C-alpha cells in the first residue's frame, strides 16, 4: 500500500528551532529541492503496509524533526548514486516512543520494505539484540570510527550474544549535548564568574536573590526522559553508573560502597537544586521548553539546556520579546515575515552582542570533577528485514557523509558527529558559536551515554517515576529504591507505572 506522508516536525525531544530553515550549504539547494519535488510527484512515499519490496528503492524511515532537510539529503544521494538506488522517505511520528513503536511493529512483522531507519541513541542494544539492526560491515565501520567523535560513536556500539567483539550497529548522524547557559550581566552585578559546578550555581543564585535579581536554575525535571538525562549526567559526573557497563544484566547504583556513595551524591545535587531558596516553583513540571521560556522572561540566572535555546533567544530578542536584550531589536528586519533567514555573516554581530548578557559554558561539574553531559541524537541503521542491505549501507554512507551532516546541522539544528566540522568550517561555527564547548563535551571522558541495555525503556520509565517529584525524597533511602527498580527492569519483573 502506498500513501503520502506529511513532513511534520516537533516531538517530545528538544524542539528544533526552525529559524534557519532556509540556510543552504554548498552542494544542496535548488537542484535538491527540484529532485525532492520530482520524487514526491512521481513516486509517492511508501507506508510499507505489505511485505513486497522494489529492487533499487530504499525506504528510509526518517525523523519528524528536520523532515524536509532529510528529504533533500535523500534526493541528493539518490541523484548521485548513478541509478543504483532511489531513497523514499517515510516520516516517523513526532514522539520518540511512537517512533520506536512503529519501527518495532514493522521489524517484528518482518516488513521487507523497511531498509533504513533513524534510531534514537538509546535503542542500539535493543534493536541489535532483536536482530532488527544489522552490524555495519567492517570496511564501512573503519571509516565511520575514524571520523566520528568518541561520545556519539559509543552510542552506536554494542556487543550482542554471539558477537566476538563489540560491533557498530548504526552510523552516527546527529548528536546533542546540554550546555550551561547564564546571564552575563547578572553575574557581573554580583561580582561572580560563570559557575563551573552545581554547588557554585546555587551560591550565585542566592547572591542574586539577595539583590532582588533572578535566582532560578532551569532544568528538565518533570517525569519524562529529560529527568533521566539530568540524573544520568550528574551521576556520570561523580563517577556513578546505572547499569554495569561490563555486565548489562546488573544494576550499578548500590552494588559497591563506591557506587552507592556516588548515587547518593548525585541525588543530593538534584535535591539541592530543586529545593534551594528562590528555586523555580514549577521545577517539577519543567522541560526544555519551559526552561527556555523561563530564562527568556528574566526569571533564571542559570539554565541547563540544549543548544537550540541560543537561536530561539536570538530571534525572540530581535522581535522584542526578551526584556533584558532590547538592544537586539535593531536586528528585527532579519526576522521579518517573508524574509530569508539570517545568513552566517549576518549572525556574527548578533552572536557577539547577545553574549554580553546571555552566554554559555560547559556542563557543570560537582566539586573538582568536570561535568559529563548526557548525549542525545540519532544514528542511521540498516534494518534486519531489508532485502537489499548492501545497497542500503551505500545509501547510509551518503546520508551520513560530512557534507550531509553539515547540511542537516545548518538547516535542521542538532550538531554533527564529525569533529573536523567544529574546527575548520567557518560557516558552521557562525551558526554554532558554541562549537568549541559542544566539541569538548562530545569527546571521550566528557560525554555521558545513557545505560546501554536492551531494556533501556523500562529502566528509564521506572527511574524517572522514582525521581519524581524531584527533591521530595531522602537520597539515602531513594538510592536503594532506584537500585531495586533498575534490577527488576533488567530481570523483566518491573511493573511499568
Question: Could you characterize the architecture of this molecule?
Answer:
The protein is an alpha/beta fold. It folds into 2 domains: 221 residues, Periplasmic binding protein-like II (D-Maltodextrin-Binding Protein, domain 2, 3-Layer(aba) Sandwich), CATH 3.40.190.10; 196 residues, Periplasmic binding protein-like II (D-Maltodextrin-Binding Protein, domain 2). The chain has 20 helices and 12 strands. Strands 1, 2, 3, 6, 11 and 12 form a 6-stranded mixed sheet that branches. A 4-stranded mixed sheet has the order 8-9-7-10, sandwiched between helices. A two-stranded antiparallel sheet has the order 4-5. Helix 1 crosses helix 2 and helix 10 packs across helix 20. The N terminus is likely disordered.
User: Please, how many domains?
Assistant: 2
**CATH topology category name of the largest domain:** D-Maltodextrin-Binding Protein, domain 2
Shape label: globular
| CATH domain class of the largest domain | Alpha Beta
Rg from Cα:
23 Å
Average pLDDT value? 90
CATH architecture of the largest domain: 3-Layer(aba) Sandwich
- DSSP summary: helix tally: 20
* Helicity level: 40-55%
Number of strands: 12
Write the layout of secondary structure elements.
Layout: H1 30-42, E1 57-62, H2 67-80, E2 86-91, H3 96-108, E3 116-120, H4 124-129, H5 138-147, H6 150-155, E4 157-158, E5 167-168, E6 171-177, E7 179-183, H7 184-189, H8 198-210, E8 216-218, H9 225-237, H10 257-275, H11 288-296, E9 300-305, H12 308-318, H13 344-354, E10 358-361, E11 373-382, H14 389-399, H15 402-412, H16 420-424, H17 426-431, H18 435-441, E12 447-448, H19 456-467, H20 475-490
Parallel strand pairs: 1-2, 1-3, 8-9, 11-12
Antiparallel strand pairs: 3-11, 4-5, 6-11, 7-9, 7-10
